[in-house]
Every structure is written in C-alpha cells, then in structure tokens.
Amino acid sequence: MGLKIHHINTGQLQNSLPTSLLNSAARPDLPYEDRLPYGWRTDIVRETGEIQDGVMIPIPVWLLEGTDKVTIIDTGLGEPQEVSDMQKRYGVNVLTTKTEEENLAVGLARFGLKPEDIEVVVLTHLHFDHVGNNEMFPNAKFVVQKDELPQGLTPPSFCMYYYPEYAHKIKDVEDQLQIIDGDFELDDRVKLLKIGGHTPGCQVVMVETGEGTVCLTSDIMYNYKNLELNWPTGSWWDVRELMRGYDRIRAESDIIVPEHDWKFLSLYPSGTIG
User: Fold this and answer.
1) How far lies 125's CA from each of 118, 161, 194, 203, in Å?
2) What are phi and psi of 42, to 5 degrees?
3) What is the pTM for the complete model shown?
4) Based on CB atoms within 10 Å of each CB, which residue in 8, 23, 106, 170 is the most buried?
C-alpha cells in the first residue's frame, strides 16, 4: 500500500517576483501576467501601512503517513517576530505571519500526533524557514546532508537565508543529527535525492504513494511557475546544478510538488496526496 503525504502549513512569508522566478524580466516573449505565481497580489499591507506587490507563500511541513517510523519533512517557520527582526539586520524586509492554527503542534494534533511522537525529521536544507521548530522534537533523529552543515552552523555573509543567530536551531539538535552524504534510502518507500543547486546540500524527498512517485521538491522549486516554465527560483547556490536537478526529478517522479505554493491546495483541496 502506498504512503500518504499531508500538508501542514506553519506560517506565511512575503515573496517577490525575482525571488520566485530568476531574472523574470529576461522573458520578453512571455506576458508579465504569465510569469506571476499563483496568489500574486497587489494589496499586501505591511506593518507600516505601506501596500506592496507580492505573494504570501505558505511554509509547509509534510507529514508522511504509513512509514515505518513517524516522519515529517522539515520543521517550518519559527516565531515570526524573531524571524522578522533577524532578517532585517541583514537587509531582508519581508512580511512574516503565523496564526494559532499555523502552529506546528496544532497542525500535528489534527492527525492525532504530538511533537514527542515524531521519530524522523528530514531537513531538506538549513534555511531559516525549514528549521524553525527543530527544538519541538526531542525524540526524533534529524536527517541532513553533510554539505548543509557549514552554512547552517557558521554561515558566511554571502549565503542567502542562513543566519548566525539561527545556528542554534541546528546546535540544539546536534546530538540527534544523522548526517548523510548523497542519495539515501530512508525506508523502502521514501528516498532522499541530493540535488544541491538551491543550497549546497539541498535534498528532495521521493515518496511512493497510491498515486505514483511524488517528489517533494523543497526549494528546488518554489512554485508551480518554476515547474510549468522550467525556470528556476531566484535563490540559488549553483544554477547549473539546479537545472540538472530539474531534469532529474522530472525523470524520476510521477507527481512534482513545488514547496511554497498555495496552488497545491487548489489541486489537492484535502491537503493530502495518496
């Protein structure tokens, strides 16, 4: 029997068109409106009252149902004010929000789970919005690629979305880390593919479901425009490696799920695949 994948949202972040779609202006043949990701808005109200364009992207955690051990993918967005204050110190000023319903513990409870029940956490990479609730899982092992650790623990200033103040999110679970290097079989129906591209050790998760092999792309693909246009995200470490990753996941999966796109819930209104 195939596994099920459940979408649990942990908050929202404001995202710009250049971050969603690399050098989006370089497609003069493509009408502007055809480049815009799902949910694009012109009425995002900032704390100051300023109104801006953009899209408020979801920050999901994925719960796998039916695995040998209770498994989630990433831990999502932490405390919004901490994240916002931290980013502003580095010149990144995006709206960060979270409702009570978007608390990860609340999301897990909808499936009858407590944080203590989680046995495996796959960290697809160590950007702030994928590690924000690491400390909630005292009984889990955290599976991470070796190449992620230098940036996650001691990020140089040129590395986007890694922050020294957030290194504690990795150090807090240091004794729980399972460090891997390359592709890895989590169990016979869940495989991790090291893609890189977005970050040095970014990995995607391949899940065997009743609907076929699903690729949870992490930030290899932010949104469905990246998938439809075969056009990369605007945040990358090695763009050639990233595009080789696009080719690989297209070849090895039946369903591709971009990470930060509300369109997922228009395609799967229950929030579940499988």
Assistant:
1) 19, 11, 10, 7
2) -115, 15
3) 0.96
4) 8
